[in-house]
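R.M. (postdoc): so does anyone remember the format we settled on? I'll just put the C-alpha cells first.
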C-alpha cells in the first residue's frame, strides 16, 4: 500500500504514466487559459445548394501563441472530457450569432445560414433552449440564419428531451442538421420522430463514393431517405467534380468540401464569396 510505502506515494506510477498525466493536466490548464485569453477563432467553410452559396459551417480553431493554428481534433475531445466544452461552445455560439447579425447588414451575405456544431454535453444542459434564445437576442441574430449540427450519438440520450428542445428552438426558426450521418446508430423509427431539416452525409462515405460500391450504396440510401422524409441532404468532404457529379446523379443538391472551398478565417471567407459562384456552377 502506498501508505506504508513511505515518503514516495507515487511509486506505483510508471514514468510514462506520470508524463501522460502531467501533459494532460498541462493541456487542460492550457485550454482553460486559452478560453480566459480568448485565443479561439472561427473558420468558415462554404455550403453550396443548387449551385449557389447558401450557407457556411463555423469550425473552431485554437490560435495558439506558440504553436500556431490548432485544429479542433486536437482539443475538442479534451474539452468534452473536462467540461470546458461548455464555455467553449457558448463562445462559438456567441461568435457565430454575432457574425450572423453582421452579415444581415450586407446584401451579399444576408442570406447565409450559419451551421454551428453542438456537443452532447452542451445540448444536454437543462437551460440549452434559454441560453440559445438569450444569445440570439443579445446578438440580434435572426434565428432563421442559425443551423445547429447535432450528431446521432447525442440523440440517443433521452428522446423526449431531445425532441422538446429541438421543437422549441425550431418554433423560432432555428434549423437542425444531423452531422456525420451514417456513422452512428440511429434507428429509422426514431429518426422519423425528430424535427430535423437536414441530413449530412459523412465525409467517410463521400471520399470513396466513386470506387467503393458500399459507400455508393450508403450515399444513395441516405439521399433516398432524405427525399422520403422531406429532409434536405448535404454531402460533406466533396473534393472532386467526379464525386459531386456522382452524388448529383443520386439526387443530392447540397455540398460542402474542398472542391468549393476550405474552411477560412473570416476575412478570407468573405473575399472568396465573390469568386465562389463561378466555381460552383
Ligand atoms: P465536422 O463537423 O464533421 O466538420 C467537418 C470537418 O471536415 C472539418 O474539419 C472540415 O475542415 C473537414 N472537411 C470539410 N470538407 C473537407 C474536404 O473536402 N476534405 C477533407 N479532407 N476534409 C474536409 P475540422 O474543422 O478539423 O473539424 C473537425 C471536427 O471538429 C468537426 O467535424 C466537429 O466535429 C468538430 N468541431 C469543429 N468545430 C467545432 C465547434 O465549434 N464545436 C464543437 N463541439 N465541435 C467542433
Ligand atoms: Mg459539423
Ligand atoms: Mg460533419
Ligand atoms: Mg465529419
Amino acid at each position: 500500500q502506498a501508505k506504508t510505502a513511505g515518503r514516495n506515494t507515487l511509486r506505483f506510477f510508471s514514468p510514462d504514466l506520470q508524463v501522460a498525466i502531467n501533459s494532460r493536466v498541462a493541456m487542460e490548464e492550457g485550454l482553460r487559459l486559452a478560453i480566459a485569453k480568448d485565443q479561439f477563432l472561427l473558420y468558415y467553410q462554404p455550403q453550396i445548394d443548387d449551385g449557389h452559396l447558401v450557407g457556411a459551417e463555423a469550425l473552431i480553431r485554437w490560435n495558439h501563441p506558440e504553436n500556431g493554428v490548432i485544429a479542433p481534433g486536437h482539443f475538442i475531445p479534451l474539452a468534452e472530457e473536462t467540461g470546458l466544452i461548455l464555455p467553449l461552445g457558448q463562445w462559438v455560439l456567441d461568435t457565430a450569432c454575432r457574425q450572423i447579425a453582421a452579415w444581415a447588414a450586407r446584401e451579399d451575405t444576408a442570406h447565409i445560414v450559419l451551421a454551428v456544431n453542438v456537443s452532447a454535453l452542451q445540448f444536454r444542459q437543462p437551460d440549452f433552449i434559454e441560453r440559445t434564445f438569450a444569445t440570439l437576442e443579445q446578438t440580434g441574430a435572426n434565428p432563421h440564419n442559425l443551423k445547429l449540427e447535432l450528431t446521432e450519438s447525442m440523440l440517443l440520450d433521452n428522446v423526449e428531451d431531445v425532441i422538446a428542445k429541438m421543437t422549441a428552438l425550431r418554433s423560432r426558426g432555428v434549423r437542425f442538421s444531423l452531422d456525420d450521418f451514417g456513422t452512428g446508430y440511429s434507428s429509422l423509427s426514431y429518426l422519423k420522430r425528430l424535427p430535423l431539416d437536414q441530413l449530412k452525409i459523412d465525409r467517410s462515405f463521400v471520399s470513396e463514393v466513386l470506387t467503393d460500391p458500399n459507400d455508393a450504396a450508403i450515399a444513395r440510401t441516405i439521399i433516398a431517405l432524405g427525399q422520403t422524409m422531406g429532409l434536405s441532404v448535404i454531402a460533406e468532404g466533396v473534393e472532386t467534380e467526379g464525386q459531386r457529379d456522382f452524388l448529383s446523379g443520386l439526387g443530392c443538391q447540397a455540398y460542402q468540401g474542398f472542391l468549393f472551398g476550405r474552411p477560412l478565417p473570416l476575412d478570407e471567407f468573405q473575399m472568396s464569396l465573390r469568386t465562389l459562384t463561378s466555381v460552383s456552377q
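R.M.: ...and that's the designed sequence above, right after the C-alpha cells. Also worth knowing: The two ends are 70 Å apart (CA to CA). The mean pLDDT is 92.
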